[in-house]
Amino acid sequence: MSSPDDPPSPPPAPVTAVHIGASSVSMLVAEPQENGRYSPIDFLEQPAPLARDIFRYGEIGGDTTERIVEILGGFVAAAREYGATPERNARAVATNILVEASNHERFLNRVRIACGLEINPIDDGEMTRLIYLKTRRRLLDTPPMKRRSAMVLHVGPGNTRALLFEDGAIRRYTSYRLGAHRTRESIEGSHSGGEAMLRVIRENASGNLAQLKFDYHDVRIGTLVLIGYEIQQISRFLTDASGSCGPKTLRRLSAAAAEMSDLELVQHFQTDYQSAEALVPAIETNLAIAEALGIEDLHIPSSDYEQGLLQDILVSNQLTDSLDREVLRSARILASRFLSDPSHGEHVARISLHLFDELADLHRMGPHERMLLEVAAILHEVGTFISPRAHHKHSEYIILNSEIFGLDRRDVTVIALVGRYHRHSGPRLDHPTYRELSPGDRILVSKLAAILRVADALERTHDQRVHDIITRRSRHRLHLVLPGVSDVAVERLAMESKGDLFEQVFGLEVVIADPA
């Protein structure tokens, strides 16, 4: 124990967050606080044309690579002056469009060797976590979001994401291959300006706009909250003191900006050339979506997008509990959309989680895998919406082609395959989606599917009669005792066809004990 005479503990060393973005590279130096938050010490940002290279040439040019290496080298040196050691304690990420560059691995290796930084491209799951953090702040300062249906729209460099909120909770999440920099490079060859440029932007976005309008045709959205690097940069030109504006204001600014040269955009909006190139596509895309959905009430945060992103990067890993709740809510909404029996799915999930917890020393998986198992259990019968026949294959198809908030493509693929393998054949290498997984993910699918199959066998009657399960293990068997179930014939019959995978994966035959 420490005594009053002991010297005070030194303050924690500063930490850094680094982001290689579409048009700039930034770093936040911050001091950890006792409440788990971070107090900013310094913020650095320099422009770099990453998105231009990726969407125009399909790869990152040598000059751009060396520009970014030079910027990061300067950032690392500056961080050391504050007592931070970025090579050891930085969270360093890159825009998710980076992986679209054919030479992105070579680029990441160059940064690692030159600067000592391990850069991780932001995947879909991380991006939704970051948007979720921004949205939680918007819930505090945008009262309409608490009272009625609202959409948070993030027009990024390559993709647009939409989150529908009702009564402050996420009800729907969708994403589209439509972004400010992607659009800029798509229309570059048209050499259009003014109204002609705006028409080309609309034509380029027409397919995604039609899909978005269809995705939300059944809800009335009262408020649209616009977030994104470019739109937040120019919020002061659009919003009143409350952060609000209407489509008319956005339309007027879009028309004016379309008449400006890149130099005039830089001077007027006080931005850099890389950001200026994407301003008109960003404004017009946000406007087109507002018009497509018929929304008049627009809100744009005045806070700095990049600084907020870096602070969120530092804390996003702390979101496990609250984010998991949103993931599960998204899964339940998806299940209800495809008319899956909620009582069966939820009961299979409860049994699955019970088995997962009881057998933790056997499977050695963690909390994230536990959550994936719960989602798979909730969704494992969505395929019956198409047909009860071969519904496990239909479940795989539906899940693979759906968005589940908070999960990246890898997670969704794992869940889809676990759902597929809840009945009939187990995992096989002649199944293309399973074959394309890494060896580690194939093992994960097999483990989770093995547990789900046992849980589903125990809920074979679909009447939730199995509530308590006592597990006992012998050398070669997993014995299940089902208190309160007087006749286990149905469950035993189901286990004969579904317990095989568990035995193959874990080496234990699943045996249902006789009723006491």
Which features would summarize this protein structure in a list?
Nucleotidyltransferase, domain 5; five-stranded mixed sheet; 14 strands; 516 residues; six-stranded mixed sheet; 3 domains; alpha/beta; Hypothetical protein af1432; globular
Kindly describe this structure.
This protein has 516 residues and is an alpha/beta fold. It folds into three domains: 15-121, ATPase, nucleotide binding domain (Nucleotidyltransferase, domain 5, 2-Layer Sandwich); 124-303, Nucleotidyltransferase, domain 5; 318-512, Hypothetical protein af1432 (Orthogonal Bundle). It contains 23 helices and 14 strands. The strands form three sheets. It has a six-stranded mixed sheet with strand order 8-7-6-9-11-10, with helices on both faces. The protein has a five-stranded mixed sheet with strand order 3-2-1-4-5, with helices on both faces. Helix 10 (247-258) runs antiparallel to helix 12, helix 15 (342-358) packs across helix 21 and helix 18 (391-400) runs antiparallel to helix 19. The chain is globular, with a radius of gyration of 26 Å. The mean pLDDT is 91.
Highest CATH level, the class of the largest domain: Mainly Alpha
Which residues form runs of ≥5 with pLDDT under 50? Answer: none
Q: Would you tell me which CATH topology of the largest domain applies? A: Hypothetical protein af1432
Major sheet size, sense and barrel closure: 6 strands, mixed
Number of domains: 3
Strand content: 5-15%
Summed up, the helix count is: 23
Strand order of the largest sheet: 8-7-6-9-11-10
- Overall shape: globular
CATH H level, superfamily name of the largest domain? Hypothetical protein af1432
Helix content: 40-55%
Give the number of DSSP strands. 14
Ends distance? 54 Å
Based on secondary structure, the structural category is: alpha/beta
Radius of gyration: 26 Å
Second-tier CATH architecture of the largest domain: Orthogonal Bundle
**How confident overall, as mean pLDDT?**
91
